[in-house]
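anyone seen this seq b4? input:
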Amino acid sequence: MKKVTFIGGGSAKFVRELVVDMFHFPELQDCRISLMDIDGPRAQRSEKIVRKIIADRKLPATVESTTDQRHALEGADYVVITIMVGGFESYRLDYEVPAKYGVLQGVSDTIGPGGVFRIVRTSPVLQQIAANLRQVAPDAQVLNYANPMAMNTWTLLTCGHQRTVGLCHSIQGCYAGIAKTLGIDPAEINYTAAGINHVDFYIRLERNGQDLYPLLKAAAEEELKKHPDEKPRFELLEYLGHFPAEGPCHQSEYYPWFRKNQQTIDQYSTQNAWGYHIDMKMNEQKIADIEDQIAGRKPISYTPSEEYGAKIIHSLETGQLRLFYGNVRNEGLIDNLPREAVVEVPCAVDKNGIQPVKVGNIPPQLAAVMRPHISVHELAVQGALTKNRRLIEQAVMMDPLTGAILTLPKIRAMVKEMFEINKDYVADWK
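predicted toks r here
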């Protein structure tokens, strides 16, 4: 009976979906599930929905909820991380404070001032997870779903837990959108994507050996009539030659070109704080849905999702070979990006473990737009690990969007204010 621990187990919708995915496989139907969250009532709500799933399907699985991280990790075979340290209040401020200075982020959870201060808050929790794992579950496979994805994964690896992979749904989600644009069954498309999380591109996009990029470029004009918010991604396709594997609003905040001011934001039909507003609205609906499902007022869907997590666990347990996209240490996987970076590449998984696939060189113009982000990741991770305010300031300085808008003194003033609103997390920092 394998133990699967969720750190951030109060995320009831995600827990429900991953548990449904796991129980889709007969080999995983007797798992012990431990749901850990610092918010006890949230963890208990997740426990209730899992108990209902187990009862509905008459499974031998068990579930518990706890606020004790070490207890939850003890003896774990798999650890799923879904935390958002600081919650929605910090999420809101990660957008609002930079916006006062003219840095108008789209989501603010991966890069930029918001992403950097999210790792400031998250790093101590990740360090604690790694320390506890060393003592109570050193061989556990960690599946990190939390943002900032690359920085969180980099932190866990630096803290010594090598059995760590970061998982995102952007690559497998965005290629389905390309298929829809082209009027092609997604199952007919063959692709290779590579890069860093949220700044990765489809290096190869084919059907039956035919390059689909000429068709995608030809479809741009008509697609933009229907979806003007797709301007950033189709402009990146035109100028960089490849289509990005991340949605248009989120994609717009990773470069110095699309969000210089409100005028350019309007020109590209993107939005400010899109991520915060949609996540807040969805969170309220998710909670209501979960409560209705617990009470039996709404049915639980048992259709498996497209997430990788349960499939990876199943492959590690049974040996079934699968391919997925994971965030891992580079170490020669993408030759023209730094070896210490966390990159997003194809990975094979079976009973022998997770084996990242070497991609080689990616087009140099794509590597060029990724390297500034890797510098931000490195400075922010080291700054958070060493509690060094100057490194955090320098990480924000290197962000492409921030640097396109603010002078260095303005960046310093903004960072100082962000440290102030996060003072409870940095009380002992230098």
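The mean pLDDT is 96. The first helix runs from residue 12 to 23. kinda curious what u guys think
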